[in-house]
Write a structure and sequence with these properties.
Blueprint (H helix, E strand, L loop, with lengths): L1 H65 L13 H19 L2 E2 H12 L3 H13 L3 E3 L5 E4 L1
Antiparallel strand pairs: 1-3, 2-3
Helix pairs in contact: 2-3, 2-4
Length: 146
């Protein structure tokens, strides 16, 4: 009987240890779960705020673009003709250095170089084409000086 009592005691102790370990494990799991829920709530709040900001910005863009706007640079101290002439000069310099180039690369380079608007660049290209200063490939993809 003493042996049975000792086995029962050992089983009880082992059961208690297992129960305590499970309780600790369960508690740690609950803590981790709570932290994850809190963090997820923070992420959801942040994403929701960013979405609201984007929607607010889009609303402003729609409002701003509903009014007619000038595609050319304004308030530069130069007439529109002067601005287009300046842009034509930049185009001429670029093509002198680079020979035949893709039209899209020319437009982007000129727009970046001195903050010319796309409208200024295309107006200058038209002006130069009218004066027979430029030559385009048949599809318009490439351009060079004549």
């Amino acid at each position: 009987m003493a042996e049975t009592t000792m086995k029962e005691t050992t089983m009880k102790e082992t059961s208690q240890k297992i129960g305590q370990a499970l309780a600790r494990s369960s508690h740690k799991f609950e803590e981790a779960s709570k932290k994850a829920q809190d963090k997820m709530g923070d992420v959801v709040d942040t994403v929701s705020q960013k979405a609201k900001d984007v929607m607010h910005t889009l609303g402003k863009i729609e409002e701003d673009t509903s009014a007619p706007s000038c595609p050319f640079r304004i308030n530069t101290g130069k007439s529109l003709e002067g601005q287009i002439g300046e842009t034509a000069g930049v185009i001429y310099e670029y093509l002198t250095k680079n020979n035949t180039v893709p039209t899209s690369r020319l437009v982007n380079a000129v727009m970046r170089q001195r903050q010319h608007t796309q409208a200024n660049v295309y107006a200058a290209l038209g002006w130069m084409m009218r004066e027979e200063k430029l030559e385009f490939t048949e599809d318009g993809a490439m351009v060079r000086l004549r």
